[in-house]
Amino acid sequence: MGRLRSLFFFCMTFLLALTLGMAVGFMAGRFSRPAGKGKTAQPLAPLFPEATAWLEQQLLGHEKEEEEEEEERKPQMRITGIVDIQPELRKRLKPTDTLFLIVTLVGDTVPLAVKRVQPVELPLIYTVGPEDQMIVDKPFEGLVTVKARVDRDGQANSPKPDDMTGQSAGTYSIPARGVHILIDTLVTGKKG
């Protein structure tokens, strides 16, 4: 009885695979009507257009699901961590301050990515990713340092007196987690 059942399931699976294969072949135009001398072959119309359309939709949906699953398996090209501030600098925070998280490739002077956060509420769990890149065509990868700056005027250019800064301890390879930054330095000097 077990062999008979196995044979039955094998035959049914084979017939289903053959039917699906033929349907896919019709959709892709692989089967065609023979052409006469000097004429090109014309694809045959599918026997069941509704079934073919449904099958095509199922196959496309399955391919999309596979692509989404593959994207989920890839490591997220992001940098995550926590930014905090030393207690003596915390009292200097103002509601109008802006926090900039600046990711720079080691050996480069132009930031790879900059994230702007306002209002500044520290400690802050942050994520910097490709959506924060300065140059979109450049890959978001490599060995980087991450700096944080509480900025008084909201401009991302160089730090000015009364801004507060901090930097990651060391370098990190993207993707990276646990890139913690302590804002511990008050920028001094002449204003303006």
Task: Give descriptors for this structure.
6-stranded antiparallel sheet, alpha+beta, 3 helices, 192 residues, single chain
Characterization of the model:
With 192 residues, this protein is of the alpha+beta class. It is built from three helices and eleven strands, in the order αββαβαββββββββ. The strands form three sheets. Strands 4, 5, 7, 8, 9 and 11 form a six-stranded antiparallel beta sheet that branches. Strands 6-3-10 form a three-stranded mixed beta sheet. A two-stranded antiparallel ribbon has the order 1-2. β4 (98-105) and β5 (113-117) form a beta hairpin. The longest helix is centred in the N-terminal third of the chain and has 27 residues, at 2-28. The mean pLDDT is 80.
